[in-house]
Amino acid sequence: MTETTPQTASQAAEAEADGPRDFIRDIIKGDLASGKVSGIVTRFPPEPNGYLHIGHAKSICLNFGVAGEFGGQCNLRFDDTNPAKEEQEFIDAIMEDVRWLGFDWGDNLFHASDYFDTLYGYACHLIENGLAYVDDLNGEEIREYRGTLTEPGRNSPHRDRTPAENLDLFQRMKAGEFNDGERVLRAKIDMAHGNMNMRDPVIYRIVNKPHPRTGDAWKIYPTYDFAHGQSDALEKVTHSLCTLEFEDHRPLYDWLVEHLPVPARPRQYEFSRLNLGYTVLSKRRLTQLVTEGHVSGWDDPRMPTLTGLRRRGIPPETIREFISRLGVTKQDSVVEFSLFEHCVREHLNKAAERRMAVLRPLKVVIENFPEGEVDNLDAIDNPEDPDGGSHTVPFTREIYIEQDDFMEDAPKKFFRLSLGREVRLRYAFFITCTDVIKDDAGNIIELRATYDPETRGGDAPDGRKVKGTLHWVSASHAVKAQVRLYDHLFQEESPGAGGRDYLEDLNPGSLEVIEDAMLEPSLAGWPTGKTLQFERLGYFCADRDGTADTPVFNRTMTLRDSWAKAQKKG
RNA sequence: UGGGGUAUGGUGUAACGGUAGCACGCCGGACUCUGACUCCGUCAGUCUUGGUUCAAAUCCAGGUACCCCAGCCA
User: Does A13 score more than 70 pLDDT?
Assistant: First the structure.
């Protein structure tokens, strides 16, 4: 995205003809067609005070997407104007996550802090023109003077200082003569404005904290409102896309751009942020989940952070696909989690290799299979991709099947194993259960069965059919593993709805750890970051916590399970 | 009598004065060496009241509901 040549308006409109459509893209098309702009520049402007989450992905996909579609450029710009909250750790993580999502800012990496000198000059410009003043009021007083939503504010007693006096004070703020909070610089607009943002907003404040990039160079920092629009202008951003809550900052954004000698005239457009069922997407809450230890960290696989989703095994293209299905509007909305699940399954069904793993093992002894013999069977890697290859699974006299796949008093609709019933072992043989062995407490501890050697590979030469197919693992070859089963972090679709503390809605069953899962041997050394399917169970990925001895797998997502659904209904 | 926004099936969206469409979900069925996948079918919507028009989700007027704003956060 570095050396992009701006296309002509008609070229861009044409190239875009069958792409996504929304009101933002319509505006851009119009601006290109009318000649209002000759090319598109957008930006993704994260504040480095937390990790990126799937809500940010919407903004990233929009900003980079639009730039790509119209032959423009999208900058990555850190909004690093508040050293009290921002850290290098977050800066590094954000870049990694944007790249992982699949976007490239090329050389266009910027920071609001790159413009601190220019911004300072702009502030002086405002002062010189009588449009800004240094206020001695403290925070509490400023709030009182601001008035309320329904009552106008009052002018600060310091509002009418001369430009010379203001310039002097502002320079002394910069020089570090005052403590945090002692003085601020305010734009002089209208204390009676219906829009609170226009009631002489603070544009510079004193923060005696080192900045991750500028170190101790500055004692004063611009506020978001003063930095953002001007940074956009300096970068020649044409369309500054942000979320709805900034809508009533737009008059201020415009006011500043109009009163400052900036090199360009950017426009701000707002769209609604993403809300997702069964999760929270506010930085405040996500930070709280991490700092209070409700999750293991920003990359806990239950977190909606990009790093959490990555560790969970969610491929980035599924996030992009999900976002693209959402559309871009100004309507507040909560997207059902099932749409996200659909996108993940749709992709993984095509892309993920299949392997077998037994989560809750039940031993089955095949009585007519010779002891000590190994039959190496061929299992296709992915039935959705028949040319994709295959791997070998060893079959022996003793195997494990899933406890759920056997039932003593099985109803007719139960297609799995039961005493006297015949099922297929995936890629292997038909077996028939001949005996059930229990311990003193009556728990089923082992099954006895016979197999039909004629059904090797999974088909009976006599054409006889079985209703059920089970996954299985050879007991002597099995690789023991820890498997982590994740569910929604919250048990309510809207955590905290109805005035509840959202933490009360935390799902106590969001993580279930299985210590003794049995994996087919080809799963030893499975690479992290390559999501696969455990047949009939779901999609999984190797976690970095695994060792050569005991791998650890995270469940990315279950398969749809109409049997479980039918059972629940009774 | 503060300001700014938004209203289309359960959910997310499309339709830009001319047959309300798509996707997810739900429900039912077919198929199946994954009770997966795939396929087929069903249900279901223009916030409300008026007005303009041959014709309104769309234009106009009045209601109603919901969201955002009183950080020296972004």
Answer: no
Number of domains in chain A: 3
Nearest residue: Cα versus C1' of B74: A224
- The CATH code of the domain that includes A424 is 2.40.240.10
In whole angstroms, B63 C1' to A228 CA is 39
Among A438, A454, A471, the domain-final residue is A471
Alpha-carbon distances, residue A218 vs A177, A202, A223, A358 (angstroms): 12, 17, 14, 59
Residue A245: which nucleotide is closest by CA–C1'? B68
> C1' nearest to CA of A78: which nucleotide?
B74
Domain assignment of residue A202, given as a range: 117-222
A197: which nucleotide lies closest, measuring CA to C1'?
B69
Residue A244 counted as domain residue: no
- pLDDT 10s digits, A115-154: 999 999 999 999 999 999 999 999 999 999 999 999 999 9
Tokens 């080809």 appear where?
A: A522
pLDDT of A89 higher than 90: yes
Strand-pair category, A239-243 with A422-425: unpaired
Average pLDDT along chain A: 95
A184-243 confidence digits (pLDDT tens): 999 999 999 999 999 999 999 999 999 999 999 999 999 999 999 999 999 999 999 999
Asked whether residue A365 is assigned to any structural domain, the reply reads yes
Q: What is the pTM of this model?
A: 0.95
Tell which of A471, A496, A524 closes a domain. Answer: A471
SS3 call for A18: coil
Rounded distance in angstroms from the CA atom of residue A482 to the C1' atom of nucleotide B17: 63
What pLDDT score does A18 carry?
Answer: 63
List all residues 6 or more positions away from A271 whose beta carbon is below 8 Å from its beta carbon. A23, A24, A62, A241, A242, A243, A244, A328, A329, A330
Both A345 and A384 in one domain: the answer is no
Binned at pLDDT 50, 70 and 90, residue A439 comes out as very high
A504-531 pLDDT, tens per residue? Answer: 999 999 999 999 999 999 999 999 989 9
Strand B: positions under 7 A of a protein C-beta atom: 2-8, 10-16, 23-27, 33-38, 66-74
Q: Is A176 left (phi over 0), alpha (psi -120 to 50) or beta?
A: left
Distance A248 CA to B62 C1' (A): 26
Distance, Å, A332 CA → B66 C1': 9
Q: What CATH number has the domain bearing residue A166?
A: 3.90.800.10
Residues A502 and A563 in one domain: yes
Residue nearest to nucleotide B11 (CA to C1'): A336
